[in-house]
Design goal:
- By secondary structure, the protein is α/β, with parallel strands linked by helices.
- It has two domains: 59 residues, DNA polymerase, domain 1 (Orthogonal Bundle); 262 residues, Aldolase class I (TIM Barrel, Alpha-Beta Barrel).
- It has eleven helices and 14 strands.
- The strands form three sheets. A ten-stranded mixed β-sheet has the order 3-4-5-6-9-10-11-12-13-14, with helices on one face. The chain has a two-stranded parallel ribbon with strand order 1-2.
- Helix 10 links the parallel strand 12 and strand 13.
- Helix 5 crosses helix 6.
- The two termini are 31 Å apart.
- 41% of the residues are buried.
Length: 342
């Protein structure tokens, strides 16, 4: 059975022509799946009975509801989704996080089952890599939560490294921003990455979404100790690539910086970070480290974080401390594990 949800207009046109359907059927399918959010072919009433019967024989829309939801004391919701294999057996679980904040509602989505990047402080990274999600499985997180139509922003900051699954991410962005899809502005979307440089260049050149780079330490040797991908894609090279583009008045470039007590939080680190980013129109988000079992790291105290923030702002780098959300349900940054409760 072919899953249609997540396919682009051009992909659906190819599918329809291969089945002898009129080419315009693809646009109708987009309208039903993405605009009207319909999940079964029988409800697509402007398709002929013959086409609907054939679709039921050979295809699925392919959306599915979350299997669990946990709610934080701060209103954050963590949704659990089952990922199935071709035999419809559950292969693994992934999580996405809904974050309401006044008139904004952000969904943090996953793009892989586990992760290859091996960052020492990340719960997702500790479970290893179990496969990449399709565009349909990524979009399903956005369309299938009860809060879907309240969303104002989507961030690709959940489980997995988005640029290690670039083709699916690009396809997802196309569905979200095209007029035949959701028709969102690309500035409602942010893709996070540890900095896989070749794919980062493609993301810049081929899309208009915001970009967030996981930095966490400006000193190469120290960054490599907590982020092994530093050895393959050095942060200096990532910043050099970003400096080749003009970001003023364009999309936003930000750097994520998790604060580890006694490791990356003193003024020497702030000074080197300011030097590294000098000349690049960007912002730095300071993130409290969220402790998890079997980790030696602890978060910096409030005074240290504020001093770090003040130093960067005083040296020309826009910096803010990001509010922690959902820590009590293991939904905060770095805590997503895709585990089903007993």
């Amino acid at each position: 059975m072919t899953t249609l949800f997540g396919q682009t207009l051009s992909q659906l046109q190819e599918f329809c022509l291969s089945e002898g359907f009129p080419k315009f059927t693809a646009k109708q399918l987009c309208d039903w799946m993405y605009h009207k959010r319909v999940n079964d072919f029988n409800s697509m009433t402007n398709l002929s009975l013959k086409i609907r019967a054939r679709l039921n024989e050979i295809a699925l829309v392919g959306r599915h509801d979350p299997v669990d939801c946990q709610v934080s004391v701060d209103g954050t919701k963590k949704y659990l989704f089952a990922i199935r294999n071709s035999e419809s057996e559950i292969q693994n679980y992934i999580e996405s996080v809904y974050i309401p904040d006044g008139d904004r509602a952000t969904l943090c989505v996953s793009c892989q089952m586990g992760c290859k990047m091996g960052c020492r402080f990340c719960v997702t990274g500790k479970q290893g890599f179990h496969g990449s999600l399709t565009a349909g499985e990524i979009l399903n997180q956005i369309f299938s939560i009860p809060d879907s139509e309240q969303l104002t922003n989507v961030v690709f900051m959940g489980m997995g490294e988005p640029l290690d699954n670039y083709d699916a991410i690009k396809q997802t962005l196309e569905v979200l921003t095209s007029e035949w899809g959701l028709g969102w502005s690309p500035h409602r979307l942010t893709v996070s990455t540890v900095g896989i440089t070749p794919m980062l260049k493609r993301l810049i050149d081929e899309t208009q979404c915001h970009i967030a780079v996981s930095l966490h330490n400006p000193f190469p040797d120290e960054r490599a100790e907590i982020m092994p991908m530093q050895k393959m894609y050095p942060i200096a090279g990532i910043v050099d690539l970003l400096k080749k583009y003009n970001w003023y008045g364009q999309r936003r470039i930000s750097f994520e910086y998790t604060m580890f007590r006694g490791i990356n939080d003193d003024i020497n680190h702030a000074s080197e970070l300011a030097r590294l980013l000098r000349g690049l129109h960007c912002r730095v988000n300071l993130i409290r480290f969220h402790s998890s079992p079997d980790t030696p790291y602890r978060t910096s105290d409030e005074r240290t974080m504020t001093a770090f923030e003040d130093y960067l702002n005083n040296h020309g780098i826009i910096c803010t401390i990001r509010a922690s959300r959902g820590e009590d349900i293991m939904a905060a940054c770095g805590l997503l594990a895709g585990k089903k409760k007993n």
